[in-house]
Specification:
about 475 residues; alpha+beta; globular; disordered C terminus; binds zinc ion; Transposase domain-containing protein
């Protein structure tokens, strides 16, 4: 039963040595870290076609897919969790965009590949090799189910910036040509008179003379470039980080970033029920602060009152910037959002971000502006220029359908549950194979029972008590 979707364990050739990851660990539990390190060099793989053939009957049964109009919109995603400071747990998943009611649930993102190791181009190219040729084949030839229906596969991709850049063979976000979709340069990022459209395509990227920044061949060239959709959650998280850093930077530049101001910030966070604190690094003496999760960041966007830090005029301006960004973030995710209206609102937000100073410096009439063009980040560029296009192209799903929150949760939960020497419910008569196999085996079982329960609820006669 659980073998319905076969599981292959692959050996990864040329596993690079783990080097220290320069990011905060997502999982720090020492027992898990040690276990994960033991599996470096191995990868688990389930064929996308096996997964699709398994889920199609249920999707047809629930009227999500229509055999008379046989098309499946398949979204591929990738995620790497930091397990300790030496290794990542990397996962590539597929999900059915058409199943819009379930798309945000972690259990509806099906693992096709998973491995502990390094999240880089060479390793992914190596591990994904069979999956890449499989997806290529599916996109070209479609998928024939046991009833003889030939399904057309329409592929999409969504992930955070780093993973997407690797898949596209593209350089890092801090390079001069930083944008995967257009030819905007770092110099032009603050030019508010220019609107950038998606101007590259996969044919150009694959050619022998690709646009600047495309250093390596794309790993998934069968997915059209305008089907690479940025993850809405990361758009919010990273723009939030920038806005927060700008506030802290301003306090520092005015020599006000002291114990008192740190206390005021903590108290205001407490008022809005967000757990937040500062601490000082022993070696560097620099101050760090809590890295907030998405939900807390949303609370701060809506409720943090900057009057506790700045004079009323300036606080109003900054409050407005944070509240307006929240409204923009909410409407970005809605399926009914009008792309033209969103483009106007996003542009207005950028104008607010770039509010210039007024009056003569060093006179009483002088009014400080907000931020400078060079403070604009690649994610802001994407929000202003490309999100309106993505809303227009894929808005029928709603951009929330491209969120990677479900994939991240799945990866985090699986690592926490399976990479332990003594599993909570394991060990009882079950001989442990490998944690990689166990994760995929468990997922097979879960998919089987989920499907059985929906079939049962539809097929079994229902009895109601009157
Ligand atoms: Zn761009």
């Amino acid at each position: 039963m659980s073998q319905k979707i076969p599981i292959s364990i692959l050996n990864i050739k040329h596993t690079p040595l783990a080097s220290t990851i320069n990011e905060a660990p997502d999982i720090e539990d020492q027992e898990i870290v040690e276990e994960v390190l033991q599996y470096i060099g191995k990868a688990g793989y389930r064929h996308i076609s096996d997964i699709l053939l398994f889920v199609i009957p249920d999707l047809v049964n629930r009227n999500i897919l229509n055999p008379n109009d046989p098309i499946i919109h398949v979204r591929i995603s990738g995620d790497g969790r930091n397990v300790g400071r030496k290794v990542k747990h990397v996962m590539v998943t597929c999900t059915i965009l058409d199943d819009i009611l379930n798309i945000h649930k972690a259990d509806f993102h099906y693992t096709t590949i998973l491995y502990p190791g390094v999240e880089n181009y060479e390793t992914l190219q190596n591990v994904m090799e069979p999956m890449i040729s499989e997806l290529h084949n599916l996109v070209i030839n479609g998928l024939i189910d046991p009833n003889g229906t030939k399904w057309k596969i329409e592929p999409y991709f969504s992930s955070d910036w780093k993973f997407m850049a690797i898949i596209l063979g593209f350089n890092a976000a801090n390079a001069n040509y930083f944008c995967p979709w257009c030819m905007c340069t770092k110099k032009d990022i603050g030019n508010r008179d220019k609107i950038h459209k998606i101007e590259k395509n996969m044919n150009q990227i694959q050619s022998s003379k690709p646009p600047p920044g495309h250093l390596k061949a794309p790993l998934l060239p069968m997915i059209p470039l305008d089907h690479y959709v940025p993850d809405e959650l990361h758009v919010m998280l990273r723009i939030w980080d920038r806005m927060w850093a700008l506030v802290i930077q301003e306090l520092k530049s005015e020599n006000r970033f002291d114990d008192n101001i740190r206390r005021i910030i903590s108290v205001e966070m407490q008022r809005i029920s967000v757990r937040f604190h500062f601490w000082q690094d022993h070696d560097t003496q620099s101050w760090s602060y809590t890295s907030l999760m998405g939900g807390d960041k949303e609370i701060v966007l809506q409720n943090f009152n900057f009057e506790v830090l700045f004079n009323i005029e300036r606080a109003n301006l900054i409050n407005q910037l944070w509240r307006d960004f929240y409204v923009l973030y909410k409407s970005m995710k809605e399926p009914e959002t009008d792309s033209a209206l969103f483009a106007i609102q996003a542009k207005k937000w950028l104008d607010l971000f770039l509010t210039p100073y007024q009056g003569e410096p060093n006179t009483i009439s002088f009014k400080k502006g907000l931020y400078r063009p060079k403070d604009i980040t690649p994610y802001m560029h994407v929000l202003i220029n490309h999100i309106p296009e993505f809303i227009k192209l894929h808005g029928h799903f709603g951009l929330a359908a491209f969120s990677c929150a479900g994939v991240e949760k799945k990866n985090h939960d699986q690592v926490s549950a399976f990479f332990r020497k003594t599993m909570k419910n394991g060990g009882k008569g079950i001989e442990r194979k490998s944690a990689i196999f166990e994760i995929l085996y468990y997922e097979n079982q879960f998919m089987y029972f989920t499907q059985q329960s929906t079939f049962d609820s539809v097929l079994k006669p229902q009895y109601f008590q009157i």
